[in-house]
Amino acid sequence: MRKPFIAGNWKMNTDGHSAVKLAESIVSGCSDLDSGSVDVAVCPPFVYLQQAGKALSSSRVALGAQDVYFEQKGAFTGEISAAMLKDIGCTYAICGHSERRHVIGETDELINKKVHAAISGGLLPILCVGELLEERKASKTAEVVTRQMKKGLAGLSKEKMSAVTIAYEPVWAIGTGLTATPEQAQDVHALIRNLLAEMFDRKIAGEIRIQYGGSVKPDNARELMQKEDVDGLLVGGASLKADDFVAIVKSSV
Ligand code: PEP
Asked: Is 32 exposed, middle or buried (0-12, 13-18, 19+ CB in 10 A)?
């Protein structure tokens, strides 16, 4: 049985004050949940990680970063290493979010280095994969997701792979209000699990959690989570409203 894992990606939103308030409200909303029932994390902007992290301390809500650089230290202006994120209390790091792939221009090769660096630095990476609308229309979803999975996870041992969560996020559903149907999500999640079995083994494929992301809201979370291979949710917009995010967490248990 895979434990549900719900993560909130705050993207480039909040300020110091509202980040702390949001973190506090999420902690309080999740306080009555049985600790073994679900894993919960929030990923504030880098500059508010410490402030938000303080508000999460001794709670069941973990801290995650929205990105991580692959080098350990040195002349990499503006970048943040896994060791730095670990040092300030991060547990997770998102790698290869579609906005980093398609707005910032990150490649599969760069993302693969980030996944390796996150694990070596003691973080748990959330590797995002997903197709663009034109790729779905051209029936290229499987091809794109297979490439992103193979390149993004290249060189990982089975042991290292156990630290990874996969997030399937169809790009056409992110921040657009369009959600994949539970059946569309399940089809790609099943493909991803089969790929994991092929690339690693059946045991690993059975253990790795695959989140769905793309306009998840309190009113569609439960039916997505009911699908066999949907083990969690990566939530953008709705994670900025504590009540909505907590309702999504609660509908997953
Ligand atoms: C995301 O940022 O990963 C995301 C899925 O955003 P949204 O929920 O707003 O579509």
From this structure: exposed
* Fold observed for domain 5-241: TIM Barrel (3.20.20)
* Three-state SS at 8: strand
Which of 166, 169, 230, 248 most suits a substitution to test ligand 1, by most atoms within 8 Å of the C-beta?
169
Per-residue pLDDT tens over the stretch 193-208: 999 999 999 999 999 9
Q: Render pLDDT for 107-163 as a digit per residue (tens, 0 to 9).
A: 999 999 999 999 999 999 999 999 999 999 999 999 999 999 999 999 999 999 999
pTM of the predicted model as reported, rounded to 2 decimal places: 0.98
- For residue 232, the number of C-alpha atoms closer than 13 Å in the C-beta half-sphere is 25
Q: In angstroms, what is the span from residue 119 Cα to ligand 1's centroid?
A: 24
Pocket test for ligand 1, best of 11, 165, 166 (most atoms within 8 A of CB): 11
